[in-house]
Amino acid sequence: MLRIAICDDDINFCYKLESIILDYMDSISELAEVMVYFSGERLLQEMRNSVGFDIIFLDIELKQINGVQVGIAIRKELNLFLPQIIYVTSFESYAVQLFQNQPFGFVTKPVNEEKIRDIIKEYKRQFDNANVYYEFTTGKNICKVAVKDIYYLNSIARKLVIHTREDEFETYKKLDDFYKLPISKYFIRIHKSFAVNQLHISVYHYDRIKLSNGEELSISRNYRKEVRKELIKL
C-alpha cells in the first residue's frame, strides 16, 4: 500500500489531486492511503511523530514556511531520504533551486491527470518492491510480506520477529536461516539477533542507527566495522 501526502493550501486542488490518485490506484487494483495537509507546519509535525510517506506532493507557495523550507527540513532535520518529493508549482522557474532537496519530480497547476499517473507509475517502477516478498509461516498460516514494508527483524530464542509498517509477525526460524534467502541482500546485520532493512535506515551513527519509523537500534561492537563497510557502499 502506498502512503501519499498532499500538502497544499488550495483545498480544491488537494481534493482533486486526491481523487485522481485514488481513482488511478483503484484502476490498477492497488491500495493507497492519502493524507491531506493544508500547511507545511502540520505535515512536518506529523513526520516528526514518525508518520511516514512514500510520496509527498508538496506545494512550493505555502504560507509561513514554504515548500522549499519544508523539503529542507525533511531531508536535513529529519534525515529522511526515502519519501519522494513531488513539488507542485505554478512557476517552472523554481526547478533549479529545488534540486538541493532531491525532488522526484514537478507538477504544475492546473493539475494534469496523465502527469499524476505517470509519476506514480515511475515511482512504482523505481521503488516498489511489490514483487519481492518474504514468505513465512506463523502458526498454521502462510504469510507474505513485501520486503519494502519490513523495518527490521530480530530473533528471540527460536523465533524470528518481523517488524513491519502495519504489524509484527513471529515465525519459528533463526536469523541465520533468513540469511540463506536471496532477499537477505536488502538487510544489514547490526547484531547477532538483529537485521535492518537498508531501505529504512535514515540516520547512521557509529554505535546505532535510526529507522524511518523513528526507532533507534544499537549496533553491536562486533558488527560495527561491517555495518560501516556495507553502508559506505550504498
Question: How is this structure best described in words?
Answer:
The chain folds into 2 domains: about 1-125, Rossmann fold (3-Layer(aba) Sandwich); about 135-234, LytTr DNA-binding domain (OB fold (Dihydrolipoamide Acetyltransferase, E2P), Beta Barrel). The chain contains 7 helices and 15 strands. It has helices at about 10-25, 40-50, 65-75, 95-100, 115-125, 175-180, 225-234, and strands spanning about 1-5, 30-35, 55-60, 85-90, 105-110, 135-140, 140-145, 150-155, 160-165, 170, 185-190, 195, 200-205, 210, 215-220. The strands form 4 sheets. Strands 2-1-3-4-5 form a 5-stranded parallel sheet, with helices on both faces. Helix 1 (about 10-25) packs across helix 5 (about 115-125) and helix 2 runs parallel beside helix 3. The model has no long low-confidence stretch (mean pLDDT about 85).
Low-confidence spans: none
Whole-number average pLDDT? 86
The count of strands amounts to 15
Structural class: alpha/beta
Which architecture of the largest domain per CATH? 3-Layer(aba) Sandwich
Q: Look at the structure and give the CATH class of the largest domain.
A: Alpha Beta
| CATH topology (fold) name of the largest domain | Rossmann fold
Rg over C-alpha atoms, rounded to the nearest angstrom? 19 Å
**Spatial sequence of strands, sheet with the most strands:** 2-1-3-4-5
Written as H for each helix and E for each strand, in order along the chain, the element string is EHEHEHEHEHEEEEEHEEEEEH
Question: Major β-sheet, in short?
Answer: 5 strands, parallel
Distance between the termini: 25 Å
Strand content: 25-35%
CATH superfamily of the largest domain: Response regulator
Helix content: 25-40%
Count of all domains? 2
